[in-house]
Amino acid sequence: MSEPVPTASTLPAQPPADPAVVSDETPSTDARRIGPTFRTSHPLASGPVVQPAPTVDGFVETFLGELNYGQGVLLSQSTVNDQYLALARTVRRYLMADWLETGARRRQAQQKTVAYLSAEYLLGRQLGNNLLATNLQDVADAAMSRCGIDIASLRAQEVEPGLGNGGLGRLAACFVDSLATMDVPCIGYGIRYEYGIFRQTFEGDRQVEVPDSWLSLGSPWEFPHPERQVLVHFGGRTEEVTDENGRVVCRWVPDWNVVGMPYHYMVPGHRNGVVNTLRLWSAKATQAFDLQIFNSGDYAEAVRAQTFAENISKVLYPEDSTPQGKELRLQQQYFFVACSLHDFIDNTLPHDFDLRRLPERLVVQLNDTHPVIAIPELMRILVDRKGFDWDEAWDITKRCFAYTCHTLLPEALEVWSVELLGRLLPRHLEIIYRINEEFLEEVREAFPGDEMLVRRMSVIAEHPERSVRMAYLATVAGSKVNGVAELHSQLLRDKVLPDFSRMWPDKFTNVTNGITPRRFVLLANRRLSDLVTDTIGDGWVTDLDRLRELEPYADDASFRAAFREVKQGNKERLAALLRVRDGLEIPQDSMLDVMVKRLHEYKRQTLKLLHIVSLYDDVVSGRVAAEDLTPRTVVFGAKAAPGYHLAKEIIFLVNAVADTVNADPRVAGRLSVAFPANYNVTLAEKLIPAADLSEQISLAGKEASGTGNMKFALNGALTIGTDDGANVEIRRLVGDDHFFLFGMTEPEVERLRPGYTPSMYYEEDARLRSTIDLLASGHFTGGDRQAVAPVIDNLLHQDAFMALADFRSYLDAQERVEAAYADPDAWSRSAILNVARSGFFSSDRSMRDYLDRIWHA
Questions:
Q1: Which residues carry this modification: N6-(pyridoxal phosphate)lysine (predicted)?
Q2: pLDDT confidence tier of residue 38, bands split at 50, 70 and 90
Q3: Fewest CB atoms within 10 A around its CB: which of 323, 368, 608, 758?
Q4: For residue 631, what is the DSSP state?
Q5: Is 469 a catalytic residue?
Q6: What pLDDT is attached to residue 51?
Q7: pLDDT tens-place string over residues 538-591
Q8: Residue bearing the bigger pLDDT, 47 or 124
Q9: What is the mean predicted confidence (pLDDT) over 302-325?
């Protein structure tokens, strides 16, 4: 590479100043340079920060300084990774002043803070999001161009941190984005997994899990803070001792401990000067290295403590089919909540803060059951460390916590064996027992003589083994319990926690999930964003209800034509990406039918697979002429949990069907299937804007909410779906004429369940029978019937999520889809109305609901 116009001679003689070392005495007439920005007061002072509009020259200067002084290379010798790291750190500088100022303002105001505890955060790539938040896209593009660098190559260099498994982690990321945009004090707490959700590859059409080494090339967005580390204890025993005041108190004598070291990530609001904090914890050994053992030659033993400790934050959701895996998961959960509570109490609150006022300063939102062990941990801090009596501590604790339940599946409500909890966290088990004893006395007082009710509501389950029901503990201690869609919240009250909702009806509420329009429309779909902004202005970005202003344009022929051009451009972008990323060729002139979500039986990827095979069977059997088939490209994206055998068999079968369908000239140009590996946020940002049809086909009563359904609707895809989760609200808002509804309702599912016989549907429906027979014949697996047997046997003899019962209704709905798609103008009108009427699904609205109904922050 030749040296571009900027050279080392343009650089300042010294590296750009670190804002952390600017002193209070720095005179305003001699402002210190912070990259291309200026600060006229100490960054931690309450005075204003003066930041002139960024310039291309200033950006280039800071970028080259980061490249020279940060990476230690000249531009002419730098790699793409050097350039990416330098660019990221340049953008980081523009955020840092606002971050420090936000923190100073928060400390001065002493406002109530939301501590969002989540075991998952699916953040996506940070570079594009932070350029968007700071409005630096155009400046950065021009600066990189002046340096002879294609900024697209630097964007592509970033590895997204896969610190989540799916919707739960992506939701957490959306929520912290919205809280910053709304200027709500919030600290997101989680785990800095060294290896996130595995990277998925396919070998012989089967899923193979590869470690996600997202840190291997550097992580420029994080700030380690070893001075804020927290000591976390495990194991041991408890004993009664007499304190200095003559009180008999309990003391935990642990066996071992680890250190939690925080890594800070900046969470910028959208162009509002607010930057909140995400604090992720990494586990370190307290004694990482034994020199004497090392010198004796036993090198592995010398670092054993380090290896053991660091396993806690090594990998997201370790396989828990073994006792060791279960123990490691509980270690992870306690580790991060203990670090987080101690951090807030000891490092964030003023040293002289009266903890009796803690509920005025802190609300802890438990994102599912993973962080629920925080409840006995706060009790332990208040009673054992701070000397509160039990009743006062319990009153404080109950006013600090709120619980979000994200599931309707009983197996997803975590339960920990008493044996494991007692061995790993003996003091916490004692606290849980006492909480339960006092709670059950409340139950007996409220419902005298009903001991069966007492047993049902006990936090401690007796069968099949003595264990702690974490959802029950969260409900007992939480000030509020919420579901995440209207239907889900109703079923949560009626089916999952009915006894608790009977006892505390006012404790239960609903907050329907939402997504951030900044990442999933403004950043992911710039073509659509520009069209919307040119039409109604840019106020929709932080007030998504303003999308309603688009409704009249659905009847404007020129706007519909422009909307179709946007969709076509997004399809072309996706096709180019998949060609390079996966070696996949997908048609750009067909309906793009997309089903992307975690691979789970209740989400019913098998139902979509049966539909594909039925279309293929229609053509190859001669029942339908190929030219009469609506051109359709079906795209799957899904990972199966490593230990979920049947889900992995479904992935294999989808890939096998794709291989056969795509190679058969009889359906060429009419039907194709793509399953790009390793679906993640980065791929979602290209795939969702290109989609025509959104598959949301879970069995009614099983999906809590979904957020993919919202992303597709906001990007102009029509939904085919059941009345499940947030589909109910999407259909109500966009209108029945612009949503393809099929399948049983939740009450119908429950009425059918006791006598459900899936083979009966196979026998009675000739098209279903022909479809399953073709699958079972081995046609898609080179004649190997055994390869498809696990999926076929499950469908015919178990089918727990009733794919066969909904098959005919689903096919009828797909015929309505094809009829609608045949009229491009009418389809575009429906798609525009989906965009215009989906503003409710902004995560900003979700946060307002949390603030009004739960947090009161």
A1: 711
A2: very low
A3: 323
A4: P
A5: no
A6: 57
A7: 999 999 999 999 999 999 999 999 999 999 999 999 999 999 999 999 999 999
A8: 124
A9: 84
DSSP annotation string for 150-209: -HHHHHHHPPP-EE-SSHHHHHHHHHHHHHHHTT--EEEEEE--SB-SPEEEEETTEEEE
Amino acid at 206: R
Asked if residues 160 and 128 have their Cβ atoms less than 8 Å apart, the reply is no
Fold (topology level) of 523-841: Rossmann fold (3.40.50)
For the chain, percent of residues with pLDDT exceeding 70:
93
Whether 598 is a known active-site residue: answer yes
Distance CA 750, CA 10 (A): 72
Query: Which residues are CB-contacts of 419 (< 8 A; sequence separation ≥ 6)?
Result: 465, 466
Amino acid occupying residue 225: H
d(CA 163, CA 217): 16
pLDDT in tens, 445-489: 999 999 999 999 999 999 999 999 999 999 999 999 999 999 999
Catalytic residue, chosen from 39, 279, 518, 711, is 711
Question: Among the options 32, 370, 469, 597, which is catalytic?
Answer: 597
In contact, 201 and 291? CB cutoff 8 Å: no
370 is catalytic: no
> How far, CA to CA in Å, does 235 sit from each of 326, 470, 607?
15, 20, 47
Side chain identity at residue 323, one-letter code: P
Q: Are 356 and 392 in contact (CB under 8 A)?
A: yes
Residue pair 222/265 in contact by the 8 Å Cβ criterion: yes
Candidates 598, 600, 648, 686; catalytic one: 598
Q: Is 386 an annotated catalytic residue?
A: no
So what's the pLDDT on residue 577? 97
Nearest C-alpha neighbor of 496 from the set 518, 515, 517, 474: 474
DSSP state of 387: -
Check if 251 is active-site: no
Is the per-residue pLDDT at 25 higher than 60?
no
Residue 580, both tokens: 């390079």
Cα angle 49, 51, 55; round to 5:
165
Phi then psi for 646, rounded to 5 degrees?
-65, -40
In the numeric block, which tokens belong to residue 841?
Answer: 């699904």
Q: How far apart are CA 840 and CA 843, in angstroms?
A: 9
* Closest by Cα among 315, 309, 90, 119 to 214: 315
So where are the chain's domains?
Answer: 8-109+135-157, 164-413+469-513+850-855, 523-841
Q: Does this chain's domain 164-413+469-513+850-855 share its CATH topology with 523-841?
A: yes
Burial tier of 374 (Cβ tally within 10 Å: 0-12, 13-18, 19+): buried
Give the tens place of pLDDT for each residue, 96-122. Answer: 999 999 999 999 999 999 999 999 999
Specify which residues 190 forms β-bridges with: 280
Among 5-19, 178-192, 411-425, 491-505, which is the least confidently predicted range?
5-19
* CATH number attached to the domain at 164-413+469-513+850-855: 3.40.50.2000
Give the separation between CA 82 and CA 72, rounded to whole angstroms. 9
The identity of residue 322, as a single letter, is: T
Residue 248: CB atoms within 10 Å:
8
**Active-site annotation holder among 270, 329, 428, 603:** 603
Tokens of 395: 């009153």
Residues 6+ apart with CB under 8 A from 40: 28, 31, 47, 48, 49, 50
Does the annotation mark 603 as catalytic?
yes
Cα–Cα nearest to 364, from 332, 342, 391: 342
| C-alpha distances in Å from residue 559, one per residue of 161, 181, 555, 825 | 38, 30, 8, 11
